[in-house]
Amino acid sequence: MAIPLKSLNVSGMMTPRTMFEKIWSTHEILSSPDGTSLLWIDRHLVHEGSFHGFAKLGDRPVSRPDLTFAVADHYVPSHARSLPIGDAEAAGLVAKLAENAARHGITHFGLHDPRQGIVHVTVPEQGLTLPGLTLVCGDSHTSTHGAFGALAFGIGASEVSHVLATQTLWQRRPRNMRIFVSGALGPHVTAKDVILAIIGRIGTAGAVGHVIEYAGPAITSLGMEARMTLCNMSIEAGARAGMVAPDETTFAWLQNRPHAPQGALWEAAMAAWQALPSDDGAVFDTELHLAGDALAPMVTWGTSPQACLPVTGHVPAADTAEIRDQLAYMGLSAGAKLDGIAVDQVFIGSCTNGRLQDLQDAAAVLRGRRAVVPGLVVPGSMAVREAAEALGLDTVFTQAGLTWGMPGCSMCVGTNGDLVAPGARCAATSNRNFVGRQGPGARTHLMSPAMAAAAAVTGRITDVRRLA
Amino acid sequence: MTPFTTLSGRACVLAQDNVDTDQILPARFLRKPRDRAKGQDYAAYLFHDLEVPGVAGASVLIAGANFGCGSSREGAVYALIDAGITCVVAPSFGDIFAANAVRNGLLTVVLADAPMIGGDVWVDLPAQRIGFADQSVRDFAIDPARKHQLVEGLDEIGLTLTHADAITRHARDMPAWLQVAPPTNKSFFASFFSKKEVLS
Ligand code: SF4
After folding, report:
1. What is the pTM of this model?
2. Do B49 and A440 touch (CB under 8 A)?
């Protein structure tokens, strides 16, 4: 890729650049005087919820169907695929996606495709997410794909139709933030706990207008699945996107994936990818430092992801109206110990924690134990499901008394009908604990897969480190 | 898109910070068809699980900080527009929400300390001025591109396609590895799953 002139300073020396700046400059087609840039988009992902975007397209053709991928995830049932979708509206949306994909010549990972899964799980698995590319989807958790060193972010329906029609997007350049996590994570402290701790520290608006680059030994030691968990919840910190620099872990994970570049193209890609990480001395607008060794398993107590604390903590004092409202909704009293709060059910899955490593973490806790509350385990994709079954994890879950589902978003958002009952308390591995997120009146506690498994076994929020 | 120039109407107030898109339009309504030509709209779903006094018939919403945070759902903007609210005033907005708003002709006015009162309100976007029921009048800042798009009611896709040549040139110059490689290695997953050491 050519070096844009503007990155050379007067003496002809390279100005150190962040990874984000490198990707931005190679994708910038035009910049307008008002400060927005027209960006080339390398991958565009659509799902059932993108129907508004297709509708807004009107009679225009899809510009690059070869760079567009459709995945059925938000409305697919978690019950057996041989059964019909019970809900007519959901069935209609799943069919509508298939119809739009067929009409425009878009590859579709539909209900009966072996590649079906949650868009942010299955697309990376197929080798479609690569370092250095721009990737968008009409879904805020598109930030997940930044785990590969891609610039990936969620867009709205109007933008979906814009990308469909032009393969480009007008964007205002975000600022750069680096979050450096030092040290090593303790036992049972996972990427989920790192990102919850970050959100707890900076708040849900803490990174508004920024792209976060996660760095430091606690980050580089994470596998790809954990990096995806981390980047996934960047949006809950208010960020536009989250990224991790590609390294040997990334390359090894990508090599030989179905759509990964092969042969000479792989070599060319590797050369570009190795030049991608932020240069020494690159300037970030905002820096945050976190001590990885000080982190504990985290759990949310309120109705915002920032309302989280280490599991060893206590429900905070109700000294603001906002906290009072949250505690009333959650049915919690100020000062109660988090460890020990009784839960009614458990959900393990979602684009945050529905990958193989997550299921392995949960199964390690559940093996040989019985759940005392009902629970639903939904793998993030057909490939994850098959891999888990090859390892016998499905048996671990079902013998513990949990339900083993078919891939999709499921109880993360409940659009497929997997809802938490009003007033019921759910230990969930998903990413949002908003009011009504898992169903009207549902009370959600976010946590890692191992923590959710521990809650299943004891029927209470439990510090998994005590159980293991 | 309907141009936005001036407005005079009634305001309602939602004095709460961090009202996310799930609260503006609960996820379960996202599946509903919306075709205003057929009389299908999202008005009835706006703030469905919240109590917002005076929201019916209001054209301006005065809200707390970080309004529209959370999910990227544009349906949140549709619900507001369909209910007749074409302007939201708040100390700050979720990024995606604000971007979605302008594309649908909804004005977001950033004001740190707007009076949290309902009643008569007027907005003059060309002059960047808003007047509240307590007779206070405030100037507000707005991104010039957003203002232009709102005032002219511009179709963004048509505008972008006037740059078709630059787009084609850029696409042609992107490195080959950035293209989608046709699926090779269909047995990848079969071999992957049998290698337990990779998995554990
Ligand atoms: S799993 Fe949940 S957060 Fe992820 S894409 Fe689906 S609904 Fe969105």
Report:
1. 0.88
2. yes
